[in-house]
Design goal:
207 residues, alpha/beta, Metallo-beta-lactamase, Chain A, 2 domains, 5-stranded mixed β-sheet, 3-stranded parallel β-sheet, 7 helices, globular
């Protein structure tokens, strides 16, 4: 589920102005993080890219020239290339992250049952093709990975959108918020926000 930032953005992978705008701590090759968890790149059956911003798609290099399916919404893939290859769009898309020989598996529409107990939900707003994930877990029940639909609990709980520079569409963001809240209500689900430390720690602990 996403591949994080590129491990060496300071070496010219990120533009200097973008690099200076972020705090960078603990960046490591994806292979090292997987190894710490007891896995290797070859063990990964599929990658779900919720979107292709530079802090989420920087590890895709590890899957170049492999058969590993890279699942992404078609609207996201199109907008990422449009942004990276023209002077328009969003500067947070870097061609060096995703313009590679990857086994893309675009998904279309608003909902997609990808696997038993795993459904993808299109949540445009932060980006055109942001994907949320609805998981049905034996012990934890229904868990919704809202990703960057909501960076923090305040974004979700109080309905406060991220700053204008972090939104492709304010109107779509509010509509996607309603979608997630409806799923939460209907499934009595737990919602995890994309950059909320407590939510990420709960995921690491198995909720």
């Amino acid at each position: 589920w996403d591949t994080g930032s590129h491990p060496t953005p300071q070496d010219g992978h990120w533009p200097a102005d973008l690099y200076a705008a972020f705090e960078h701590t603990g960046l490591r090759p994806l292979e090292d993080d997987l190894a710490d968890a007891g896995y290797a790149i070859a063990d990964i059956d599929m990658v779900i890219q919720t979107h292709l911003h530079l802090d989420h798609a920087g590890g895709l290099y590890a899957f170049e020239d492999t058969d590993t399916p890279i699942v992404v919404h078609e609207a996201e893939l199109k907008y990422a290339y449009y942004s990276a290859k023209t002077d328009a769009g969003d500067v947070a898309y870097l061609a060096g992250d995703f313009d590679r020989d990857l086994n893309w598996k675009p998904v279309h529409g608003d909902r997609r049952q990808l696997l038993d107990g795993l459904e993808l939900v299109h949540l445009p707003g932060h980006t055109p093709g942001l994907l949320g994930v609805v998981l049905e877990l034996d012990d934890a029940g229904t868990v919704i990975l809202a990703g960057d639909q909501a960076y923090t609990r305040e974004n979700y709980d109080q309905g406060l959108p991220m700053g204008g520079g972090l939104l492709w569409s304010n109107r779509d963001w509010h509509e996607s918020l309603r979608t997630v809240r409806d799923l939460e209500r209907r499934h009595d689900a737990r919602v995890c926000c994309g950059h909320a430390r407590a939510d990420l720690e709960a995921l690491q602990d198995g909720l």
